[in-house]
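Table 4 source record.
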Amino acid sequence: MKKPISVFKIGLLLIGWNFPAMAQDAAQTADLAGSVVANNKTRLSYEARGCITGLSKSAVKSGKATAGQMLVELDNRTAKLAVKISQARVSDLKDALSEADFAITVAKSNVSRVNEEQSFVEREFERTRVLFQRGLVNETALETVERSKLNASFAVERSEEELKRAISARLRAKTALEIGKLDVQGRELELESLTVNSPFDGVLLNFKPKIGDCVLVGALAAEIYAPTEKNVETFLFVDQLVDTVEGGVTVGREVNITRVNGKKCPGVFSLISTEADLESQHVRTTIEIAASCAPDMFLNEFVGIEILPARP
């Protein structure tokens, strides 16, 4: 509870040492003091367990990375083999689907053929029946043709059943192919999880990988932040926020941030906490540093803050 107070007091004291011109009129120049922090610092973790087999030497050397750059690669030989096996399985399933399509084509042709045969047999039966009624053929000939008609009907039914089975087999083949494709995607995701890539252009922190080191899932690989996105964290008294004369400090209030060399950088209050320290009545605030000068500032650098008059 007392740490923010001591930091704030030390900050004001350091400003008096490093900014003598400001110390002469603190009310007009250096109203506050704070330290530079990274905005939206991102943690990069290992998504799989394994041993490091590759890393980006340029990232290790410079401490910087570009979007999509490979930073660390774990042993991926088994994962690559699994991807190739699943891809080969998909190729086999595609062939099976093609065979199922061909089987449907054959079954349809067979249905058409037996339907034509049935039509022919039915016409033959009608002719024989007429001849039988006229007494030109005996009953045996009529029974023979009638039996052929029944066989033709059975053949049509069997061919239609074969077509239904072929269509069902194609649906199963298509489902198996979709499952195979999903398996490939899963294997590819497993392969991708063995590589840690940079999500955006930024500066790396705590990035110290070594070839041969073995890591666990969730272990810290590095932290990264955009050099143009930095904030200053400081504290305000409650009375500075509720000042009825000056209007109080609010989000959007402009400031000048002064470095130890006297260089100024514009900024603006971007966040004001909703909770005050019970003892000191300090409220934590965040100031967004202009992107034009943020890259030149060091993390944890101590700076002075001049609150500019509110615009009418």
